Amino acid sequence: MAPLQTSAAQLVGKSPHNATMMLSSGGYLLTTSQMLFSLEILSFIQIPICLLGLISNIINIKVFLAMNAFNDGVTLTFLLLSVSDFCVCCSSLGLVIATIISSEEAKWLISLRGPSATPGKKLYMFSQIDPFFLSTFSIGFLQIFNVTTIVITFYLALTRCLCVVRPLKFRNVVSVKKTLRVVAISFISALLTRVPIMGHTGISMTFDLRINATRPRMWIHPRREIIKDIVWAGFDMPLCIAAQITLPVCIFIMLKGLTSAAKFRTQAMVSNDSCPAAQDAGKEKLNQKDIRVVQQMIFVSILFIVCNTPKLLTHIGTTVEPEFQIGAWQFCASPNMQHDSTRLHTCSMTARVSTHAVRQRASPRIQHVNARSR
User: Fold this and answer.
1) Based on the structure, what is the number of domains in the chain?
2) Ramachandran region of residue 166, left (φ > 0), alpha (ψ -120 to 50) or beta?
3) Model pTM?
């Protein structure tokens, strides 16, 4: 995020390395007061969503561990997806809290502007640390685990799609070692791409003219924006586009496979023949466990596509038109809006997976099928 520049008359510092807050609102769709009000409303709405995601993922982790996740590649993949989503929700909750603190400080500053403002008055400090630093720190971790979640979702959809196309050949393609290897590579890649960005951001004890007090305050190196654009164009954008294109194809293939499996089972129930040809054909069909996993992945993939589209369009709009924004308070508003769809995707997906996982644990018949298929 670019450091916002204002003048000393707007109660901010002049240092080019200090992150400052824009209080002017000319030429934008929303005024500063309207933007602050909108951010607070969105933040208070997102708090229960984040809490729902945290609770759901705790249930996920507990259930998948009870299902001996480290003995089955598919269950382990869902477990790691829940862990990644849990970290996304934690980062999102930190971002929401930092946004609320930033909004309160901005509203306090706005209320002191004008003839009624008292020069040299010690302003109220809502946070001992610059809330902009808390926002940037939370966004960095959110992006790391968000990339990990995207890769795991993509990996699950692709492997399930291959399992539908060739059940006998790819049924055991999701092994424990392969799953751990894929997740480790995705996490390390996301971490390495964020280290240069976060390394060009720091915090130091600085006198903050806005609150007339000294506190740890964030600074941003001028080259940070260039590095961020390179990472987005070379890593984030291709990953999002690849997932957005590939997942619909996987959904189509999986739906076709489920339809074919349903027709086969209907014909098998009608016909009582047990000829060798029918038995050989039955081996090529999906078993009950595969069908449940495919159904779950279809839901997760559709939810990912629906919730990832607004974020992708926002990023593309920002890339094509740098001035693309809604309000003047760019620093806190832009990252918050860009990750709203991520939070909604994560919390909704984890709630659905939790319901499915609890249902699996509560059904002895399904537990027996899972143990037998392994």
Assistant:
1) 1
2) beta
3) 0.72
Residue 27 has pLDDT above 70, yes or no: no
The CATH code of the domain that includes 248 is: 1.20.1070
Q: How far apart are CA 140 and CA 220, in angstroms?
A: 14
For 41-56, what is the mean pLDDT? 87
pLDDT of residue 328: 40
Residue 359 is predicted with a pLDDT of 43
User: Does pLDDT of 140 surpass 80?
Assistant: yes
User: Residue 173, exposed/middle/buried by CB under 10 A (0-12, 13-18, 19+)?
Assistant: middle
CA distance 281 to 284: 5
Amino acid making up residue 304: F
Residue 98 domain boundaries: 52-373
d(CA 364, CA 370): 10
Among 152, 96, 153, smallest CA distance to 339 is for 96
Return the DSSP state at 118: P
Strands (E), 209-260: 213-220
Q: Name the region of 373 (left: φ>0; alpha: ψ -120 to 50; beta: rest).
A: alpha
